[in-house]
Known about the structure:
- This protein is mainly α and 192 residues long.
- Helices cover 63% and strands 3% of the residues.
- The chain contains 8 helices and 2 strands; from the N terminus they run H-H-H-H-H-H-H-E-E-H.
Amino acid sequence: xxxxxxxxxxxxxxxxxxxxxxxxxxxxxxxxxxxxxxxxxxxxxxxxxxxxxxxxxxxxxxxxxxxxxxxxxxxxxxxxxxxxxxxxxxxxxxxxxxxxxxxxxxxxxxxxxxxxxxxxxxxxxxxxxxxxxxxxxxxxxxxxxxxxxxxxxxxxxxxxxxxxxxxxxxxxxxxxxxxxxxxxxxxxxxxx
Length: 192
């Protein structure tokens, strides 16, 4: 095999590996969207907005808050990586939700009283935001060059956060909250 053939073979192998990595990341993130879909299936807006065991455990958030927070966490972290404005504002979702909270609310710090304010009149408001965010995240992951994974994107942490670490964190957070949504659904007495 000539040197040119070896370079072409190495390049083809690297591209196959990069495609496999992109597919793996997309699949891992997509599973949380599927799980959120199952958690919201057949649920009314009233059920989704209710904290399932408010008196006993007010920190078990509603299905609405869990799904909204999942979308928001993905949105606020992927948007700057993709060089775009978050779907929350660019897609008009902030206006559609019309939450009685500051637009820049730090939902990861919400007390039970704040999370209880995250409600929707119709589940389509929530699922439209979820779909838009997951579509944007998937498009970003499809464009990902595996060489970027080691790039430092946040020096506010020790050690500094690389793109690869941030993507793992996003997927982990989405998995955690989508699993909590299934649990919250069951606490509401619904199958699933």
